[in-house]
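Quick start: what a row looks like.
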Amino acid sequence: MGKVLLSFDVEEFDMPFEYGKEIVFTEQLKISVLGTQRILTLLKKHQIEATFYCTANFAIHQSKIVKQIIADGHELASHGYFHSDFKSEHLLESKLKLEEIGGQTITGYRMARMAPFDESELAKAGYVYNSSLNPTYLPGRYNNFDRPRTIFTQNEIIQVPASVSPWFRFPLFWLTFHNLPQYIVQKLCLWTLKNDGYLNTYFHPWEFTDLSDPKLGMPKYVIKNSGQKFVDIIDNFIVKMKSKNHQFIRTIDYVKSYNPEP
């Protein structure tokens, strides 16, 4: 039985800025809140737990839904202080703010957009694990073929990379779920689970909302199968994984069970 580490990056929805579009802060929050509510409903339906990497900025303005995430038994982790601004001091500042709002210790971190940063600062800030590495190649974003593909320890921190397939390192993340036939996605995930014993995949709340409005400027490969279609896709994915007796757990629970070889 493998472990599925389902996670969601909860942030102010500022992606339109990447495509030269404007979106006011209240609308950014509204879209992310709606998506998060749909995710929580879906997880409750299947009685499974997940990890939510949240920016402090989002949590400050939407503390109610952050508290709901915790009340539903999910893990709250840090996604930085702001989604589009990073300073090393934000590592500790975001951790402290999320702990203040959520009332529980924050042990996990994921860098916004999985961008490179000085990971040596994580241990100083008190984190236990880091899930900021996608060990594959994505044009214009990252080239990490030289990094470990599965869980490892570095800089006193347990590193939990996003899952990629064995051999050719095909990424098994949100864009894959939007654009590939689902039977292929599921086969790749099952293959990875069999090979690695776990699957670490991630999504964003805004994917579960309708992003077809031209004013958002979203490219077709991002908005394909978004909204209710994506709710159904993840619903079916959960059903498929559970039918194969794989268990959905929070990332921190998997990290606690990790015993690196001496």
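That is the whole record. The chain has a mean pLDDT of 96. The first strand starts at residue 3 and ends at 10.
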